[in-house]
């Protein structure tokens, strides 16, 4: 009876989610993989998004790929399960790829899973990404 009572109380009185508890609070880290669509479908690798700051729906962070060969500062928005960001500054690029000002990412997140699409508008290339919340 006591166990049933505790479970009922927990269902009726869930713990409040912390501010930014959607996985985009400062310090949150998402990691996963990308795969480009044809004709570049053989090009794939790792991605990491680290959230540095959050102000309401807006966030800033660092995005890296290919084991940190490429690192950019990003700024984006999160709202109602949707996420989008743009690349705002080059930190490190193994080869000049002109992502800043030419590429965006947008998609959805639910719980600890994010499904987004990278669009490089200048090169007209697209990659699908799946990321998982790590911390």
Protein traits:
135 residues; mainly beta; Lipocalin; 1 helix; 8 strands
In words, what does this structure look like?
The protein has 135 residues and is mainly beta. The chain has a single domain, classed as Lipocalin (Beta Barrel). It contains 1 helix and 8 strands. An 8-stranded antiparallel barrel has the order 1-2-3-4-5-6-7-8. The longest helix has 11 residues. It is globular. The termini are far apart.
Fourth-level CATH superfamily: Quinohemoprotein amine dehydrogenase alpha subunit, domain 2
CATH architecture: Beta Barrel
Spatial extent as radius of gyration = 18 Å
| Unreliable sequence segments | 11-20
Shape: globular
In terms of DSSP E residues, the strand content is over 45%
Strands, helices and their partners?
Layout: H1 2-12, E1 29-36, E2 44-55, E3 58-65, E4 70-79, E5 82-92, E6 103-110, E7 113-120, E8 125-133
Antiparallel strand pairs: 1-2, 1-8, 2-3, 3-4, 4-5, 5-6, 6-7, 7-8
In short:
The chain is mainly β and 135 residues long.
């Amino acid at each position: 009876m006591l166990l049933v009572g505790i479970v009922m109380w927990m269902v009726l009185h869930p713990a409040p989610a912390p501010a930014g508890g959607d996985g985009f609070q400062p310090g949150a880290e998402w990691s996963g993989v990308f795969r480009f669509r044809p004709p570049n479908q053989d090009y794939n690798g790792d991605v990491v998004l680290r959230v540095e700051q959050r102000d309401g729906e807006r966030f800033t962070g660092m995005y890296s790929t290919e084991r940190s060969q490429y690192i950019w500062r990003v700024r984006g928005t999160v709202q109602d399960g949707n996420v989008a960001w743009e690349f705002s500054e080059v930190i490190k690029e193994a080869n000049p790829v002109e992502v800043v000002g030419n590429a965006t990412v947008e998609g959805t997140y639910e719980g600890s899973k994010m499904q987004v699409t990278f669009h490089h508008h200048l090169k007209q290339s697209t990659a699908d990404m799946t990321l998982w919340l790590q911390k």
